[in-house]
Every structure is written in structure tokens, then in C-alpha cells.
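Lab notebook: predicted structure, single chain.

Context: the supervisor wants predicted structures on file for every construct in the current expression panel, including those that have not yet been purified. This is the next one on the list. No modifications to the sequence; it matches the entry in the shared construct table.
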Amino acid sequence: MIVDGMIIVMAALLILITLALIILHFLINSKQKGMERIKQRVLCRISVNEQIEYLRNEIYQAVNAEEPQASLQGIWGIRSNRGLQVLEMVSRELEGRQAEVLCRLVSSEWYGEYLRKKLSGRGQDAALLATKLIGQLHVSNYTFQIERNFNRWPKDAMVQEIGLLTMFQLGEKERIIWLLSKSELAIILSFRTLHELFRSYCGDYKEFYQELLPVAKDQYVKRACIRGIGECTCRELCEMIAPELSAHQINVQLEAIRSLGKLGYTPVAEQIRALTAHSAWEIRCAAVDALAVLDSEGCYKAILQCLCDPVWWVRFHAAEALALLPCRERLLEDVGKSGDRYAWEMLQYIIERNLILMGGVA
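Prediction complete. Output recorded below exactly as produced.
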């Protein structure tokens, strides 16, 4: 009985192996279109890499096809999490006409229905992928779903970062200003991240900052606006920044000093001069740099006092500013008379460093 049972089991195994070999033979050697599709699907189910490569190739074929024939509907698995992932990956590689075609395909009602489902679904990763895809391709009409996700996941920094990035990429000025002026939306991003988001804005920077700065609630948003105004050289907005020289938040005050100095807004030169004696050393550093730009001829006395500051960084900034002034002999004489050894050492260090950088010998 045992031998008979073993014979039956081995016969069954041989039959299964034979069937598997026959199927594999057909899959490998078949040249018919239908069998090729079956083979591709089987391989995609076996290997994730095969599935990604298949989807990627199909998407490229779609965006390179003639306009009436371009479509995503014939791509097996395109409306799946893996398909969404590959679409997002390919969207970062495309530009020009290809990007425009893919945008049109993704904006179709057939795929748009799937995007809305993912944006509103429970899966956070899928919602973020859909959001990134929308931003990279500049697909419109999904702002409502993106905004709603801020409330669904209020404590998730990634949701806030990717959602805001997409809105900045789309140039949704009114919606961004409305969101960032709401006290209900707690900004949980770092200042550096927020600053990078502002730099990705697609639209008129001057108009954007002009409308956002007066209504901004969060200090990081204010700082990003002020720094952005300086970086974009929006000199017309200097009057809006000037009141922030008296801000209670030190980082906002620092951004105002730096931006006004960078933009060369001379009406605030006296305020900046007074800030060189501020109690916070960070403010004194920024004020020295700004004053040297705003009043190069009349800044000598105030910055000379900062050269004798007890804080190393303040002395360093003061020495850098003074070393660029034309009155070198008077400067050396005044510092020598001060009797401040640390001021003298700092000034000598900066002078020698500048000489070496210019190719001379210290």
C-alpha cells in the first residue's frame, strides 16, 4: 500500500512538472500578441522589477504615440499603487512635449477618477504619491482634495510638505495665502523646508509676497516672505519689511535686517546703525553687515565699536566690513590706540586672510 501511494504521488508530481514545462515552453516561444501579453503579466506577477519595467516602457510608448492614439487605458496595472508609483517616477524624467502629453493623459476622466479615489482614500502613501504626480505634471482641479488632507493628517510633516509643494508648483496663490493666513493650520515644517517651498512657487513673486506678508500668522512664513523678497530683489516691497526691524521675534528681525541690507534700502540706515548696539549678538552681527552696505561712508565709527565687542562673531563681522574700507591707516591707528588685543588680532587676521585670497603673501 505504501509503495502504491508513493508511485501515485510521484506520477502526480511528474504530471505537474510536465504541465509546467509545457506552459513555460509556450510562454517563451510564443510570438502571438495575446500570448506575449499573458507572458508579460505572469512575469510581472512574479517580479516587481519586471512589473516596473513593463509599466515604464508602456508609459513611454503612450507619451510618444500620435495624439489620437495616446492613452493609458491599455496599460495593464496602471490604475494600481504600483502603476501610480511608476507614473510619478516617469513624470520626473519627462519634459517638453512628453510632459504635456502625460499631463493630458493623467487629466483624463478615466484616470482622474482613480486619482480622486487615491487622494480621498485611507492610504496615506498613495495619497502622497498622487499629490506629487499632480504637482510635477501641473494637473489642475485637485486642490480641494489636497487641502482636505491637511486636516486628515494634521500632524504629519510629509503631508504638509508635499501638499504645499504641489500647490506652490501649481501657482495656487489665493489658496496658499488663505491657508498660510489661517491660525488653524499649524506649520510643522522647519524654516529651511518652508523656504525651499517658497522658492518653488510658479507665479509672480512680488505679487505673492505683497499679499501674503501682511496676513501671515506664523513666524516661519513671515521669515520666508522677507527672505524671499531679498532674494528676488523686490525693492518695491522694502517699506513692507521695514516695520519688522522692531519685531519681537529675533529671527524675523534678523531676516528683515539682512534683506534690507541686501536690497540697499538706505531709509533704514539709522535704525540699522542703532541695532549695532543691540543686546543680542546675532542682531549686532547682521546689523554690521547691513550698515556696511547701506552707509559705507558713515559706518566707520559704529562698526569700529563692534570690533571691540566681547563676542567673537561680532568682532569677525566688524573686521570683515572695516577691512574693505579705504581708510586702512586710520583704522590700524585707531585699533592700536584702543588697546584691545582681541580687536587687533581679529583685524590682522582678516587683513592677512584677504591678502592670501587675492594671491598675495601675508
